[in-house]
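Moderator note: this is an archived Q&A kept for reference. The question asked for a predicted structure of one protein chain; the sequence and the answer are reproduced below.
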Amino acid sequence: MKLVLGILALVFVAATLLADYKWRQWLAARKLDRQSSGGADPPQRHHR
C-alpha cells in the first residue's frame, strides 16, 4: 500500500511540475505576443 501511495505521490508531483512549466511557457509567450504587437489591441471586455 505504501508503494502505491509513493508512486501516486511521485506522479502527482511530476504532473504539478509539468503543469507549472507549461503555465510559465504560456505566460511568457503571451507576454512576448503583447510586446511584439505594440499594445495596439483595444482592452478586452469580459461579458458576465
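Archived answer notes: The mean pLDDT is 87.
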